[in-house]
């Protein structure tokens, strides 16, 4: 993938803070590339993120000495089921990516013809055209994978980034110096998974879904006392999510970027691309 001179979130942050339009528009402007191409690259990044985490999670679940030793072994069956679901999800995504890479234009044309009569408004592009554009954009993003060597490097980088995130979780929990929080690295992936799931279920007005899910996992799965679980959950959030905010704000200020204007401009850019045929 192209090297970009702007800050990019770590995988876990990208899962929680889903701002594909803003990220794609910013990179497109800095690298003088089409907006749709960077939106496609963003989609490919998500596949590698999910696939890399699934690989580590599956290893942790199915290794004989990993999850069966958790304080509550009854949860192990649920984790195994979640592992099978993740494997199926990644398999479907991989198969879909291969099919689109080989027959993307044919699929886009079929989608456009099949749903071309549907439209949300008189002047907007049809639903079929919008869906077909998404297929074409995704196929364009797959072009960033130029061969087996490129695929191998992307896989290694994605797995390595998730492994480093796991080490940061391990360092935070180990720093408390108590047996309940001396969690093996293989079991740390449970905390990472709960944090990602919780980030999709933000509490009204205040957010905090990631912290609440991490705290609940620490207390229910690992028998950490409630007070220590709350402290550790908040500290994990500060280290893995909030720590990058000061640097990001500093760089945004140095580049004279307005996040609000960037969001508005990215929405207009996407809308202009979609409405062009119906103008």
Brief descriptors of the model:
globular, disordered N terminus, 0% strand, mainly alpha, 279 residues
Give me the secondary-structure topology.
Blueprint: H1 11-16, H2 20-31, H3 35-62, H4 76-115, H5 127-142, H6 148-174, H7 185-199, H8 209-221, H9 226-240, H10 245-254, H11 259-275
Helix pairs in contact: 2-3, 2-11, 3-4, 3-5, 3-6, 3-7, 4-5, 6-7, 6-9, 7-8, 8-9
Outline:
With 279 residues, the protein is mainly alpha-helical.
Overview of this structure, please?
It is a single chain. By secondary structure, this protein is mainly alpha-helical. The chain has one domain. The chain is 71% helix and 0% strand. It is built from eleven helices and no strands. It has helices at residues 11-16, 20-31, 35-62, 76-115, 127-142, 148-174, 185-199, 209-221, 226-240, 245-254, 259-275.
How many beta-strand elements?
A: 0
Radius of gyration: 21 Å
Low-confidence stretches: 1-9, 13-18
Let me know the largest β-sheet: none
How many domains is the backbone divided into? 1
The percent range for strand residues is under 5%
Report the order of strands and helices: HHHHHHHHHHH
Structural class determined from secondary elements: mainly alpha
Tell me the span between the first and last alpha carbons: 33 Å
Shape: globular
Number of helices: 11
Average of pLDDT? 77
Q: What percent of residues adopt helix (DSSP H or I)? A: over 70%
